[in-house]
């Protein structure tokens, strides 16, 4: 496959950036999108150019590191798929593909396609945890959890924190991410003691980090590589309402 | 947005139901319009209920616009650098047009009050009866006003299609089944409301009333 890619190049956090066009020739349709960038980078290095910086880690779709907006869609055209699991066969020979970083004030660009997602860590630090006594790990079945709740909590827990929801949101809101964490912990018995403070503190951390407000536009769930449903935001809203009325 | 929006939707339905009185007869419609001033009498002096309700509406509209403005400013700040490639493939048309749709509706409401409440922009205006103003407004020769009403009412329909569902979600609706139901109800209510509001101008234009 011969394609053209237009990639956002930005040399540093405070530098200006622009879209730069590259020709990529002889790519296998079975190559992943990241492998295509790897091949392009090898060419750039051989030519003495700066390779394109991008985040990647497991390349198995489970770590949440890869983060590219491909033709305006976070993680590209394939539904419920991370960039690393997207293959070039989903594109056609001769395509011009635009590749941009996540665009959000809370996710500043470090270099090229790499953004700083520590704002998500701040949200987790504010309440995305449970407090337990240290010591020997308890038996897995020590606290019974209804199967229905366990399944629903697990579905929410599949969120890999990649930030595609923020990248896609017209408001730059991280509500789906926060809602996934609220649901994941709030459905478990171990998550109950901090349930009220969790939702208040995590929403505050989210606002402080500079994310926008949610307007239920629903763009987040359509790009989420793990298919986190929009309904979890309703659960967050419900938890928040209960928490502030109890105060 | 949800709380103030709910009040506004309730008002829209009450207003639409009142409009349909014109199909009973022009005299009945005028009688209904005068009765609006007498609601609450003798507990309240004549006209008081209407003014209390007007201030309530103004407060709800103010809060609605204030919340929308805050959200818009936050959204602009949250994405200082725009995408160079941004297809409009996701989300519904209704969800994408909430902000500009809202502005169109606000401008329409101002025109609508100057037209049918105060009569300043009405072809007959003055001391005429409400039914006479409505009939003058939507006469076939005055087609551009009718067209503006149609555009504004359809904008309200789109606004509510996303707005009603979104309000339910804000209030804590959290199941996928309930989400489908809420979306269907929001669509049905929007279509019904648009039909109720458009029936009057269309009936006048076609000569079925007046």
From TrEMBL, chain A:
Keywords, comma-separated and alphabetical: Iron, Iron-sulfur, Metal-binding
Span of domain 4Fe-4S ferredoxin-type: 150-179
One Pfam family from the record: Fer4_8
Cofactors (names): [2Fe-2S] cluster; [3Fe-4S] cluster
InterPro entries, per the entry: 2Fe-2S_ferredoxin-like_sf, 2Fe-2S_ferredoxin-type, 2Fe2S_fd_BS, 4Fe4S_Fe-S-bd, 4Fe4S_Fe_S_CS, Beta-grasp_dom_sf, Helical_ferredxn, SDH/FRD_Iron-Sulfur
Residue intervals of the 2Fe-2S ferredoxin-type domain: 18-103
Keyword Endoplasmic reticulum (UniProt): no
Family: Belongs to the succinate dehydrogenase/fumarate reductase iron-sulfur protein family.
PANTHER family: SUCCINATE DEHYDROGENASE, SUCCINATE DEHYDROGENASE IRON-SULFUR PROTEIN
Name of protein: Succinate dehydrogenase/fumarate reductase iron-sulfur subunit
């Amino acid at each position: 496959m011969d394609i053209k890619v237009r990639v956002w190049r930005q040399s540093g956090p405070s530098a200006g950036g622009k879209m730069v066009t590259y020709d990529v020739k002889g790519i296998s349709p079975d190559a992943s999108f990241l492998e295509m960038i790897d091949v392009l980078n090898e060419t750039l290095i051989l030519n003495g150019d700066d390779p394109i910086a991008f985040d990647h880690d497991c390349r198995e779709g489970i770590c949440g590191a890869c983060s590219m907006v491909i033709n305006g869609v976070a993680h590209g055209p394939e539904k419920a798929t991370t960039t690393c699991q997207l293959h070039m066969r989903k594109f056609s020979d001769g395509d011009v593909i635009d590749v941009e970083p996540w665009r959000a004030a809370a996710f500043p660009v470090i270099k090229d396609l790499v953004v700083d997602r520590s704002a998500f860590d701040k949200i987790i630090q504010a309440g995305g945890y449970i407090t337990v006594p240290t010591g020997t790990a308890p038996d897995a079945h020590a606290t019974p959890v209804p199967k229905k709740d366990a399944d629903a909590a697990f579905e929410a827990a599949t969120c890999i924190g990649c930030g595609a929801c923020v990248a896609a949101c017209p408001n730059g809101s991280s509500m789906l991410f926060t809602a996934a964490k609220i649901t994941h912990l709030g459905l478990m018995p171990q998550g109950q003691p901090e349930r009220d403070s969790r939702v208040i503190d995590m929403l505050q951390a989210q606002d402080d980090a500079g994310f926008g407000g949610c307007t239920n536009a629903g763009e987040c769930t359509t790009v989420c590589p793990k298919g986190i449903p929009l309904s979890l935001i309703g659960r967050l809203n419900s938890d928040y309402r209960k928490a502030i009325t109890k105060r | 947005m949800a709380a103030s929006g709910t009040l506004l939707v309730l008002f829209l339905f009450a207003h639409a139901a009142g409009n349909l009185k014109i199909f009973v007869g022009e005299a009945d419609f005028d009688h209904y319009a005068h009765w609006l001033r007498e609601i609450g009498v003798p507990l309240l002096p004549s006209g008081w209920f209407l003014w209390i309700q007007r201030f309530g509406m103004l407060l709800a509209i103010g809060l609605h616009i204030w919340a929308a403005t805050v959200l818009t400013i936050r959204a602009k700040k949250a994405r200082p650098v725009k995408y160079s490639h941004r297809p409009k493939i996701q989300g519904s048309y209704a969800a994408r047009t909430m902000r500009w749709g809202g502005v169109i509706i606000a401008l329409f409401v101002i025109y609508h009050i100057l037209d049918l409440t105060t009569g300043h922009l009405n072809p007959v205006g003055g001391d005429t009866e409400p039914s006479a103003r409505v009939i003058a407004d939507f006469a076939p020769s005055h087609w551009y006003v009718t067209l503006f009403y149609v555009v504004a009412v359809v904008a309200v329909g789109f606004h509510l299609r996303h707005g009603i569902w979104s309000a339910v979600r804000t209030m804590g609706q959290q199941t996928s089944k309930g989400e489908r139901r809420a979306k269907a109800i929001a669509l049905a209510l929007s279509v019904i409301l648009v039909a109720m509001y458009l029936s009057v101008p269309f009936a006048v234009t076609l000569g079925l009333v007046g």
